[in-house]
Write a structure and sequence with these properties.
The protein has seven helices and 16 strands. It has about 350 residues and is α+β, with helices and mostly antiparallel strands. A hairpin with a 5-residue loop joins strand 9 (about 190) and strand 10. Bound molecules: zinc ion (ZN).
Length: about 350
Amino acid sequence: MTTSTSIDRPDRPERSTGDAAGRSADHATGSAPAAPDAERPISLTATGGIDRASHHRLDEAWLAAAWSHPTTRVFVVSGGQALIEDKEDGTTELVMMPSFDAPFTEAHRYFLGTDEDGVRYFALQKDTLPGRMDDIARPAGLREAGVLLSDRDSELMTHAIGLENWQRTHRFCSRCGERTAIAAAGHVRRCSACGAEHYPRTDPAVIMLVTDEQDRALLGRQVHWPEGRFSTLAGFVEPGESLEAAVRREVAEEAGVAVGPVAYVGSQPWPFPSSLMLGFMARATRPDIQVDGDEIEEARWFSRDDLRAAIESGEVLPPSGISIAARLVERWYGRPLPQPRHHG
Ligand SMILES: [Zn+2]
């Protein structure tokens, strides 16, 4: 019951903006939501066109040549942040530099891959982000940058931040306790004492939108969330457990609802610090709610009309932004969620 309390769920309050243009259009019509299209894919597995080219990671000569190539681009990650910059055309980019401008230390260099034009990308893990003379660039974490950056930049940053989280917390060998060293261009840590190789960790977590016989959606709120925030339930997969079993267990633990059929719909890397969110639609077989009161303080069944009215009145703040929770709710709702009419 407490295993999922530490999941940093993808629906933080700072993500409460979203696609204002699309939503206000929806808002203006006031029409009933279209029937949900169960086949509509969730675009979370879309990539930004980066080939990770992992076969180069152990090739020091290739890496050295790639690093010094004039078209190579480098960005710095530090403490889960990178520098981003708003452009005049309204887009936002990762601040990248050629490698000859980069503060190189081999011990903190990650090779991230190449794009279709043959450009090679590296990230450097540093204790601080580099200073800039102008005020245009600013440090940002993935929660902010993820909705602003292009697919390519977002993919690069997610990869680098995931590696950084792992590198910073796995400096010692979990087998013998000796210090480990970075290898494979950031994708391995090696222990010189016992020879163990350690690979980046990814922790699977399930996140699910549960519906009942009337096609209402089950949304809950965590104890520590801001007033009105409701979202999908989520939790970590336990050892020896299938994803389907984890969905059923978490929904039963958090909301007391029994779940039958479970269908996978998409995934989302969530490197805060190392989760992979696996999204499901699930059907309740017994809809009676009994929240655990510990992690989840309230859970409710919402029809689409209920949810629209609650959001528009400001009573409910739905998940939004880059989160898979928002995509799951929208998938059920059948279109982008309405915007709140009032704040607070
Ligand atoms: Zn060791």
